[in-house]
Amino acid sequence: MAALEVRGLRKQFGGVVALNGIDLDIGTDQVVGIVGPNGSGKTTLFNVVTGVHPATAGTVSWQGQDITNIGAHRIARKRLVRTFQQAMSFPGLTVDENVRIAWEQGRMGGSRWASPGMILDFVGLAPLGRAIAGSLPFGSLRRLGLAVALGVSPELLLLDEPGAGLNDSEAQAFAAVIAQLPPQGIGVCLIDHDMDMMAELCDRLVVLDFGTKIAEGPPAEVLNDPKVREVYLGP
Ligand code: ADP
Fold it and tell me: Which domain covers residue 219, as residue numbers?
């Protein structure tokens, strides 16, 4: 049984069908990439899975429990955690303080990290611990966003465009940190437009088009699928 099991997930916004019956399984030992053109439903999938928006139909189960529509806060407490494109931290506090606040929150049910310092080491921010979060360069701010999300001890982390706005070397360094998560028992599901990064990082790609899953499998296979090429390159 996969940790996350999505079945027949449907989401309508008025007359717009954003998700049209999605099935998806994700384990905590995997990096799964969600790709597809703009408007294909990627962000909506994250929003419905994490309870930001209610599902119109279908189910989301997490570690064997039905969590469909139980609400974003309750879902996050179950260690199914998402990040947003904009890192949500306290800009006036130091890097250390930001991570400590998240770590204190996550400690309640038992943290995988003995101290917040371990998280800073893990994401490569230890030398910047005393820096004010709001003064960090963009690449480091993105790492801080990851550190804050890790602070609450996720077992599955949903990352919405972690590479957006990063230059090539920052994106590569960030991908290297993400690749270290599944060996720690933290599954990753991410949305990103950088296909080179996705192909390298992901064990599996899921391609959405108009709210429907049109392909799923190892990146090399999926990116050569004629249906996928048509969506990206046109007929
Ligand atoms: P993607 O992340 O792949 O770009 P989205 O999930 O953002 O796609 O959008 C899928 C579809 O749902 C689009 O047609 C979009 O306009 C619509 N949509 C997304 N969020 C909302 C919302 N809050 N209200 C109305 N329509 C929405």
Answer: 1-79+154-235
